[in-house]
Amino acid sequence: MSKRQATYYPKEVIDKIRNVLNKSKGMVLDEDLLNTVENICQGVESNLKRKKSKASELARNIIKEGESKNLGEQIQEEREIFGNIMEVIGTGLCLLDKDSKVVWANDTLKEWLDLKESPVGNHCSNIYQCDVAGTDKCPAVRVFKGEEGHLPESWVTTTKTEKRMHIQHIAIPMTNKEGVLENVLLLTVDVTKSEKLVHRLLLLQQFGEITQGTLHLDKLLHLILTCITADYSFGFNRAMLFLINQELDVLNGKLAIGPSSLEEATQIQAEMSSKHDSLRDIIDRLDYSHNIDTPFNTMTKLMVYPLTDTREVVVSCAKGKKPIIIKDADNDPRVTEEFRKSLGASEFVCVPLIAKNETIGVIVADNVYTVERISEDRVNTLTMFVNQAALAIENAETYKRLEDKINQLTEIQERLIRSEKLAAIGSMSSYVAHEIRNPLVTIGGFAKTLSRFTFTDSKIKTNIDIIIEEVKRLEEILNNITDFGKPSTLEKVDTQICKIMEDTCMLMENYFQEKQIKLHKRFEEDIPEISVDPAQIKQVFLNIIMNAVESMPDGGDLDVIIKSVYKSIEIDIIDTGKSIPQRVLQNIFDPFFTTKPSGTGVGLPVSLKIIEDHGGNIDVKSKHGKGTRMSLTLPIK
Amino acid sequence: MTTILLVEDDKNQKLLYEQELRHEGYEVVTASNGKEALEKVQENLPDIVIMDINMPKMDGIEAMGKILGKNKEIPVIINTAYSNYKDSFMSWAADAYIVKTSDLSELKEKIKEVLAKKSKDS
């Protein structure tokens, strides 16, 4: 306590000593001692004074120091905020001096330009991947010259994300206190997104131009889905296309493009990321057989949804004529479990294909592998694209219908030509046949005359018999041909087809036995009578059964089936013999085409002509090792 | 003896029919075309005519018409390489229509048949 008092009140202590000294002046003991104490007191006093002023100075100093400390902190904080802003601003910043040397750069720029060391002190051309550095085109140079400086665009690839970026440089002049241009701040802006948008629009335009000339439907569908899945356009991972089938009133999966697995997706992405093709390039390279056999495509082709089933998201999209974005398929009541399972993506978008105000189909796209969110903006562009696609599909479909009609016409024309040909062949063959018939009569006739004589050499008799046999064979062939050329008039009467077939089979009974053919007849009951020329139909049955038997030289089974099938009677003649090779199959109805050593090649053409004259048709199916099935149809009228 | 007028332009065929019919025991007179046939009918008045159709100068159908116009009772057998004249109503006037083959038995049969019918009628 006393110590404290001594510390805090040294003046009082001195005053007390002085008082004691003054009182003791009268009874002075030693004058010198008194002076000495007096001196000490004075020394302490002056010392105290000095200390006091020093303390107050110190105190003042302490207050000053506190203030500057606060200011420092503030500056630091602001600097950090500024720094943060610089980093998060999403723009590359770089301060250049007059010699285009880097004074300072932010981290964003370092990252974009893939710089491992600080660029400070480097010439700008060392860090920017640009070819205008130092030239009049350089934005920084232009600003230093007092012009406006911005360099439109250039591409860089950052290795970190392996993404291609589209960047733009803008130079801003920086002056010092005196207003002298000292530095240039170079802003580097990422314009990839807007560039992509421009690219997409360009793609739309290109697509429009190309599809106007693409009328092949399959090609077109492929093209549309390729556009949707191409990395640099819409960049969806996968896309499926459904078209409405008006006749069946269903939505039918037509085509799907996209990898079937994550591994495949990664591989394709690696391949694609380095390419930046134009649509024209894609089309030129488009390989329709590729991608077709993917499990994803096969699955899509098997997807069929009745248009009445509005529970299905694709159907409701088609009906609603508006895009539907599904953000969370697992918890979205609009998606059926079946559809969710087949697609396997939780986020996807359905866009209707609308042509002339009518829905013609639906496109479904997702990002199942990259799990990138599908933005509203992207769906809008996609919708624009899909609308154009719909028109193109509509065009192609119309064209296809036209093509079908033309094919039908061509077929009719071909049939006309064939019958014309038949007629021409008929008249020609009948001429030739008669010309040959006359000498044959003479040859055969004289040979027969000779055979009546007796010869000593038995060889003569044998040879004469051979002549007679061969002439007979030639005459039979001529008979076939002349029958062929003979104009026929149908003599139609109401007839039971089964009865004609029974008769034909009966006629050939012995032949079947000889050739070891087992006949199996299956005639449906209640086959109606139809109006036919029985003789001609019998001729047809004979021809076809004869062919069937001849295809089974070592015996076999012959099935004859008659049944009524929707307004017509179908007669199937099925053998287990040698099949008809594919190249032969397309010729079997051509007159005089034959593979048999002794055939005339008129049996089947005559049969077809007769059946066609009756308004029916013949269909042939032949499978290697399985024999041949001839299906005849005759209309019930 | 029964006389047959054989009308046939083909030399070798004519020879064949002549031989065969003689062998059957008939008297055979021949003509090479329709015109000649008419003359031969006048000269010989045959019991039966075997007529080819396609011949020079006058074809068989025309000749048949002319023969029948004069002698209705002479039977005519058409013997031709063509089957399509069968549908022509002109040929209906013939007593028989035969498509030529190297086997002459059909022709021989028909001759017998027609002659038998003729003798029965008269």
Which fold name corresponds to the CATH topology of the largest domain in chain A?
Beta-Lactamase
The CATH C-level class name of the largest domain in chain A: Alpha Beta
The CATH class designation of chain B is Alpha Beta
Shape of chain B: globular
Q: SSE order of chain B in H/E notation?
A: EHEHEHEEH
Taking strands numbered 1, 2, ... along the chain, how are they ordered across the largest sheet of chain B?
Answer: 2-1-3-4-5
The most extensive interface, with participating residues per chain, is:
A-B, 22 and 18 residues
Number of helices of chain B: 4
The CATH superfamily of the largest domain in chain A turns out to be GAF domain
Low-confidence stretches of chain B: none
If you compute it from the alpha carbons, what radius of gyration of chain B comes out, rounded to the nearest whole angstrom? Answer: 13 Å
**DSSP E strands of chain B, number:** 5
Span of the ends, CA to CA of chain B: 17 Å
Strand percentage of chain B lies at: 15-25%
Structural topology:
The complex is a heterodimer of chains A (637) and B (122).
Chain A lengths: L1 H7 L1 H14 L7 H58 L2 E6 L5 E4 L1 H6 L11 H4 L11 H6 L5 E9 L4 E13 L5 E10 L1 H22 L3 H13 L8 E8 L4 E8 L4 H11 L6 H7 L9 H7 L2 E3 L6 H8 L3 E3 L10 H7 L4 E8 L2 E9 L9 H76 L6 H28 L7 E3 L1 H11 L1 H6 L2 E7 L6 E3 L1 H17 L5 E10 L2 E8 L6 H4 L17 H11 L3 E7 L3 E9 L2
Parallel strand pairs in A: 13-15
Antiparallel strand pairs in A: 1-2, 1-5, 3-4, 4-5, 6-7, 6-11, 7-8, 9-10, 10-11, 12-14, 15-16, 16-18, 17-18
Helix pairs in contact in A: 2-3, 7-14, 8-14, 14-15, 16-18, 18-20
Chain B lengths: L2 E5 L3 H13 L3 E5 L2 H11 L3 E4 L8 H11 L5 E5 L15 E4 L5 H17 L1
Parallel strand pairs in B: 1-2, 1-3, 3-4, 4-5
Helix pairs in contact in B: 2-3
Gist of the model:
The complex is a heterodimer of chains A (637) and B (122). Chain A is an alpha+beta fold and 637 residues long.
